[in-house]
Amino acid sequence: MSPEALAAARDRIRDAQTVVVKVGSSSLTTPAGVLDVERLTSLTQALAARRLAGSKIVLVSSGAIAAGIVPLGYTTRPRDLATQQAAASVGQGLSSPPTRGPSGRTGSPWGRCCSRSTTSSGG
After folding, report:
1. pLDDT (mean) for 94-114
2. In terms of Cα–Cα distance, which of 91, 19, 13, 95 is closest to 59?
3. First to last CA, the chain
4. What does the CA dihedral 37, 50, 18, 27 come to, rounded to 10 degrees?
5. Distance (Å, rounded) from C-alpha 98 to C-alpha 110?
6. What pLDDT, in 10s, does the model give residues 40-81?
7. Does the structure show a pLDDT above 70 at 97?
């Protein structure tokens, strides 16, 4: 991509009203496979700043399985569907925004970004 095309793309992103952010497992976890709270906090702060600037943020993550591996005691990514689903269930809970907390503050980095749950159950 030429420098001019790159600058034009950055301008379109800067001016976008809706921003879709795709975050994969390697962006949410450490090399050991645990949820990387520092990275999650940094991502959350960047998304919160963009949201406060008036953009609608859509966060898409494929990191739920990876986030659930270590808490379940596994050392490698599961290959069978049932275990992947179990890991995803645990991982989703670890990486999802909280839906309740005193005065909306839970200490979670998500509490500063998301005013309500982004899960399918609403909130």
Report:
1. 50
2. 19
3. 42
4. -20
5. 7
6. 889 889 999 999 999 998 887 767 888 888 889 988 888 888
7. no
Q: What is the DSSP letter of 122?
A: -
Percent of the chain with pLDDT over 70: 75
**Helix residue ranges, H only, 1-123:** 3-15, 25-28, 37-52, 64-69, 81-95
Q: How far is CA 14 from the centre of its chain?
A: 20
DSSP string of 99-113? S--GGG--SSGGGGT
Both structure tokens of 103:
């005065």
For residue 11, the model assigns a pLDDT of 92
Closest C-alpha to 67, from 23, 108, 106: 23
Distance of CA 81 to CAs 24, 72, 77, 78, Å? 19, 15, 11, 8
Across 25-36, b (16+ Cβ under 10 Å) vs e yields: bebbbeeebebb
pLDDT of residue 8: 93
Handedness of CA 79, 80, 82, 83 (dihedral sign): negative
